[in-house]
Amino acid sequence: MRELILIRHAESQLDPSTPAEAWGLTSTGVKQARAVGAELKDAGIVAIFCSLEPKARQTADLIADMVGLRSRNLKDLAEHRRDSWGFLGDEEFNQAIHEVFDVPDTSVIGAETGKRALSRFTNAIAAADEKSSPGPIALVSHGTVMSLFLSKTTGEPAGPIWEAMDFAEVFRVEWEAPV
Questions:
Q1: Starting at the edge strand that comes first in sequence, how are the strands of the sheet with 71-73 ordered?
Q2: pTM of the model
Q3: What are the tens digits of pLDDT across the range 90-137?
Q4: Residue 161, domain member (yes or no)
Q5: Rounded CA gap, 85 and 93, in Å?
Q6: Is residue 104 part of a domain?
């Protein structure tokens, strides 16, 4: 068993004219990431991995500085792939996300299926596990894929997990690599 420390990226700068995967952190997000780093300073983390998106990389780098590590990128820790959505209004976005959770085998508005996103994310965790010495590993990622993973891990529905998730929130789970 390995302790996974899943961290949702800190608050990002929304910009409807830029794809979400290119957004960076706000000044509040920088403070949130530093606070998480301070919280995890003595957690014994042996490695920190993050998605390639700037908001996740910046969050991971700020945490890594606080715990004395360097973050490493894993592209498959990326958010649920939904380029086809463009920038949706809050109500339409929330409805689409819940549909991803409710019908995980179906592509919603041309996006990656929830089932495929969960599989990709889980494989990325397995890759991080293989690349790390024994001890807790931190993974900085995104709300939708983390909600799918936490739902599978805990048996709780993904929708309420996603709705309650804050920026820079930390989730600790025990995980065993699939054989």
A1: 71-73, 47-50, 137-141, 2-8, 170-175
A2: 0.94
A3: 898 889 899 999 999 999 888 899 999 999 999 999 999 999 999 999
A4: yes
A5: 9
A6: no
Sign, CA torsion 152/158/164/167: positive
Q: What is the DSSP string of the chain?
A: -EEEEEEE---B---TTS-GGG--B-HHHHHHHHHHHHHHTTS---EEEE-SSHHHHHHHHHHHHHHT--EEE-GGGPPPP-GGG-S--HHHHHHHHHHHHH-TTS-STTPPPHHHHHHHHHHHHHHHHHTS-SS-EEEEE-HHHHHHHHHHHH-S-HHHHHHHPPTT-EEEEEE----
Q: CA distances (Å), 88 to each of 85, 93, 126, 127, in order?
A: 7, 5, 32, 33
Domain count, the chain: 1
By residue range, what is the domain housing residue 25?
A: 2-87+117-175
CATH code of 42's domain:
3.40.50.1240
The answer to whether residue 105 is domain-embedded is no
72 occurs within a structural domain: yes
Q: Which residues pair with 174 in a beta bridge?
A: 3
Is pLDDT of 177 > 80? no
